[in-house]
Amino acid sequence: MEKIPLAMVHELKDIPQFPLPEGYYFRFFSRNNDEKTWARIVTATDEFPNEQAALRRFENEFAPYLREAEKRIIFLDTADGQTVGTATAWYGKWNDKKIGRLHWVEIIPAYQGKKLGRPLIAEAMNHLKLYHDAAYLTTQTTSPAAIHIYKAFDWQPYIRTDIERSAWKTVNYPPLIDHSV
């Protein structure tokens, strides 16, 4: 399948809640080497070829805003203190407005399939709702599992082009908001 970028939007109302399985807990980013923790996770999920590249991205995207990072980057830890996932309740410019952004939702492969994704997304969306009335996320056609989870949270496709309209059809998600007309 061709990798085509896609966007989704959410009004941050009626966020479904999913309990975190026993033996896991959430915590926020701290300045105590958590940038390396973040880099390890996003590298393990193949978002970057190596941790150095991930750290460069962190430096560009989050390091200038560490106070915000401490309130918005969520980590998923095991009871024995291993950090196995992350999600960010960030923000961004969308249609010339600053709104929330569900960003960098990642669970390392050894912990995928353990019913952790939905609770992690719910936690991030709950934090987004503290700061924003609406949010967006970006994904791609090569992430059907993520799109399936976003659908469970009622994220809606945001369609601007014919290519995006076709792409949504390939992932079997009925487009409901078409902004190309």
From TrEMBL:
Record-linked Pfam families: Acetyltransf_1 (PF00583)
UniProt-recorded name of the protein: GNAT family N-acetyltransferase
Domain (N-acetyltransferase): residue spans on this chain: 24-174
Organism per entry: Tigheibacillus jepli
Highest taxon of the lineage: Bacteria
